[in-house]
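Record type: monomer structure entry
Structure origin: computed from sequence
Chain ID: A
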Amino acid sequence: MGLASQEAINQFKALMDQVDEPLNRTFKNVHQGYIVETLERFLKAREGNVTKAHKMLVDSLHWRLQNGIDDILAKPIIPSNFYRGVRDSQLIGLSGYTREGLPVFAIGAGLSTFDKASIHYYVQSHIQINEYRDREILPGATKKNGRYIGKCVKVLDMSGLKLSALNQIKLLTTISTIDDLNYPEKTITYYIVNVPYIFSACWKVVKPLLQERTKLKVRVLQGGGRDELLKIMDYSSLPHFCRRDGSGSGSRTGSGSGSGSGLDYLSDNCYSLDHPFHQELYNYMKQQSGIHEPIEPAKQGSIHVDVPLGDNEGEELHRTLESELKKLRTRKSLSESLEKVKISD
């Protein structure tokens, strides 16, 4: 049970039994019937300290109430062609499942541009994917596998990562803070692939600042990580950007053997709105809201979600990352200037 001892869980549960009805109602949407497992997540996020874990969870429940998170899946971003722009610039998708039944989320960290909408739309979309994962994807995986599945695997593609990423620090910090404080311990492993120099340079600086439990979750793989990832998932569940790596049939983009998930998520691009995962998610949100595709464009409007204050560790990490990116940008500018001088000579 790790940091979450039975005594700590019992104390935590006794405290949560005392919360009032509005908080208790939103707590049900968080635990989905798995109270102990949820308490364990928050305890682990606070190093087993019951008082701190209780405060973290209660603060999160207040955040959910104040920002209408329980109803966020009934508020799709419309019209759909505008939402397509969000999806094309905020690259995330479900590529399949591991052999143990854990969902595999692919994230285009390097190629996401976040330039098709305001920050509020991207935050709204991110939370909606989190909520759909927790309310539909994970419970579905739990039912199919006959055992509790409450975490996922994430594969982050760093292809295309540039120094201009500095411009996205505010948005990425916002999303990271929301996840850290309200969706803790939902990812069992982060696989980092297609790593360019800029990431390697930043990682050397940031890694020592991370808590040990966080460092243990991160695995930086060589190249596209294909061979390593095939140890835990079938070819059909590999994110599309991993399939070129390694020997053999790396060029395949069509159908392959099933992953045992019951869903065929094979696609050249699991980020696309046309991918089954995103189609299912968007149709689910439209069904929840009762909206149908409007004949005339509907008035666009994002949901403004308050961002909770991050902890000191998170703030230090973000400051360090921003500082390192600025240094790299300065070095690049200097190098380019020297190159121009050489050319002119």
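Annotation 1: The longest helix spans residues 312-344.
Annotation 2: Residues 246-267 have pLDDT under 50 and may be disordered.
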